């Protein structure tokens, strides 16, 4: 289910994606946009230019389903449901692209548990941060690693990461644009690959194909680490070991206004009300209804 903030986006926002972003974010998969519903959502003539770009970005099978969706007759209510389906499924991509400030304000309160960070073997290693975003793990890793390669699909987030690295005088970070399904990395080129709240158990943001791609870039004997996994059992069935730590139980926001806004936009109105009633800038994860970032799945790559 998309966060409440999804209501701020409409289908027209897709037009801002460049062609590489369309191919990345519209890749078919269990948790991705359903191509036929995407076609229905873009069936109006005013979307013809965007629809042509979308069709070119899709793989052949998905492209055929997309065209069928455009050609099927839908009543106005069904078409609106399909537009909302597309926006909800693409919510995080739309947020990263259109409001990186809002995304950074959110993750600023999500501190990775120190126990998770301490267990990682980073000293003197070459590390890849997969789905690096604006660098919350990259910047930590760069203080211990020989070199960190940060990969993300969103140029605006990578630009922010580069700026932070300069501000913090870290010169061992390299940024590369790419997706989980096509990592811009050579075979067996890193000692440790880490995906922090990014690689999931389901396509198109994860799944078996993305997992194989992540393992491809790790040297034999190296580690692939998924921090804050969405489905630990799924990873464990694929050879990972699950580790959890005494959890950091709270999110820390800059001030009460920020806490209320983030809770309202990304969690629930009841969480925002809890903040306003208590004038709190520190919010327990149980109020938000999510587990804290205090676990990881780890695999030694053969």
Describe this structure in words.
With 302 residues, the protein is an alpha/beta fold. It folds into two domains: 4-98, Annexin V, domain 1 (Orthogonal Bundle), CATH 1.10.220; 106-248 and 290-300, Vaccinia Virus protein VP39 (Rossmann fold). Helices cover 43% and strands 16% of the residues. It has 15 helices and nine strands. α2 (35-41) packs across α4 (60-71), α2 crosses α5 (76-89) and α13 runs antiparallel to α14 (269-278). It is globular. The mean pLDDT is 95.
- In the CATH hierarchy, what is the class of the largest domain? Alpha Beta
In the CATH hierarchy, the architecture of the largest domain is 3-Layer(aba) Sandwich
Structural class: alpha/beta
Percent of residues in β-strands: 15-25%
The main β sheet shows up as: 7 strands, mixed
Helix and strand succession? Answer: HHHHHHHHEHEHEEHEHEEHHEHE
Q: Indicate the CATH topology of the largest domain.
A: Rossmann fold
Note the overall shape.
globular
- Number of individual domains: 2
Biggest sheet strand order reads 3-2-1-4-5-9-6
**Terminal CA distance:** 36 Å
**Annotation, overall tally of beta strands:** 9
Report low-confidence residues grouped into runs of 5 or more: none
Question: Helical element count?
Answer: 15
Overall radius of gyration:
20 Å
- Average pLDDT rating: 95
- What is the name of the CATH superfamily of the largest domain? Vaccinia Virus protein VP39
Indicate the percent of residues in helices: 40-55%
